[in-house]
Amino acid sequence: AAVHLSEGGPNGIVLTASMLEMNTKGRSVLEMDLGRISVPTLIAHHVDDECHVTPYAKVEVLQSKLLNAGAVELLTYQGGDPRGDPCKAHHFHGFKGIEKRVVSDIAAWIKAH
Q1: How far apart are CA 50 and CA 43, in angstroms?
Q2: Which 3 state secondary structure label does DSSP give 4?
Q3: 87-110 tens-digit pLDDT
Q4: With contact defined as beta carbons under 8 Å apart, do 82 and 75 qualify?
């Protein structure tokens, strides 16, 4: 919505474990015209995310494409209790074991912006 709506769009966006590689379920966030985003943007990502479509190594590229977003903040997480498939919610991809901290941080950021 933040990319496509010039009026009536969101007041800010939160990107968690963003799809930064192409896959069979959809296109990468990096393929979108991120320069059109003009609202505060929070990126929350786990440094050990092992999912092949959400690599932490590409978070810097994501940040660099948010040229007009104004406030861009990155929250990087470590730790947790991953289980099972690295591309599912019960692994680092879903912040397993640190959910309360992540939700609390995101809520604080929303309130601040």
Answers
A1: 17
A2: coil
A3: 899 999 899 999 999 999 999 999
A4: no
The 10s digit of each residue's pLDDT in 11-51 is 999 999 999 998 887 889 999 999 999 999 999 999 999 99
Task: Find the DSSP H helices in 25-97.
Answer: 59-65
Structure-block tokens of residue 29: 């966030």
Residue type, 101: R
Tokens of 111: 């309130």
Closest alpha carbon to 94 in 57, 54, 63: 54
Residues forming beta bridges with residue 46, ordered by sequence position: 77
Give yes or no for a contact between 17 and 106, defined as CB atoms under 8 angstroms apart.
Answer: no
**pTM for the predicted model, two decimal places:** 0.92
The amino acid present at 85, given as its one-letter code, is D
Residue linked to tokens 């966030």: 29
Between the CA of residue 33 and those of 17, 95, 110, what are the distances in Å? Answer: 18, 27, 23
Contact, 37 vs 70, CB < 8 A? no
